[in-house]
Amino acid sequence: MKTAIKIAYIGTDFSGSQYQPDRRTVEGELKKGLVEAGTINENTRVYLSGRTDAGVHALCQVAAFEPADIKLAEPRIINSKMPKDLWSYSKAEVPDGFDPRRDPESREYRYILHAPGLDEVTMAMCSEMLLGTHDFTNFATLEPGKDPVRMVKNIGIRKHGDFFFIDIEANSFLWNMVRKIVSVLRMVGSGEQQPEWVEMLLDPGEHREGVPAAPAGGLYLMKINYPGIDFIDDEYAKKRAYRRLSESFESYYTMSEIYREFRDAMR
């Protein structure tokens, strides 16, 4: 049997999730911590559910491995060897054939966009055009030989103050697909582009255009859905992670409130 764990990380100081020699990556730090905790051996392969770019965060990345000692495959033990911006909080025992990258039914991303003044109604209308199965060539940075067809199951847009929370669920995603969709929604929401432009982008056989990707820092992997796999949360690990986050980001909370004070004073 393999063990699968849910991990979360703040991507700001990582050069992406995938291992790269001489760079700080999620996969590299995770494997190093698992070895130090005695959970796996040095030559054990760790499989991630997918790739996130430099600066992108994750609330629910999944890693799978064959533990050297099942008793040491607990999130609270693993976290004792993890850096402050990477932690585990849930685990499941999975079959040997479990593949965290190929087995998901769908993935869900959230982008938090600070963009005062956008037209929420227009953004929602245009997001509906993206639902279903389409060729997303114009919404991605295509890798050679990669099939550009994807099925978007759901897009939700919620406004809170000056922020838009954009949730996108698909069977799988192309490189930069979420960030380019966000850029498109922002441009139609601002009036820079008209809704007809979105329809043109969905027909790459007739219209090819490079769409800029939204900044990485607003994006995080929110959820991965595996049919038939039951993860069990480690409540102690979650409480410790919450405390760690509160301590690490106290200055950011303060600056956020100062920003609001200044913004309101200048209106």
From TrEMBL:
Substrate binds at Y109. Residues 128-227 form the Pseudouridine synthase I TruA alpha/beta domain. GO terms for biological process: tRNA pseudouridine synthesis. It is an enzyme of class 5 (isomerase). Keywords: Isomerase, tRNA processing. GO terms for molecular function: RNA binding; tRNA pseudouridine(38-40) synthase activity. It catalyses: uridine(38/39/40) in tRNA = pseudouridine(38/39/40) in tRNA. The keyword Protease does not apply. SUPFAM superfamilies: Pseudouridine synthase. InterPro entries: PsdUridine_synth_cat_dom_sf (IPR020103), PsdUridine_synth_TruA (IPR001406), PsdUridine_synth_TruA_a/b_dom (IPR020097), PsdUridine_synth_TruA_C (IPR020095), TruA/RsuA/RluB/E/F_N (IPR020094). Its EC number is 5.4.99.12. The keyword Isomerase applies. The active site is at D53. It comes from the Archaea. Formation of pseudouridine at positions 38, 39 and 40 in the anticodon stem and loop of transfer RNAs. Belongs to the tRNA pseudouridine synthase TruA family. This is tRNA pseudouridine synthase A. The lineage of its organism: Archaea, Methanobacteriati, Methanobacteriota, Stenosarchaea group, Methanomicrobia.
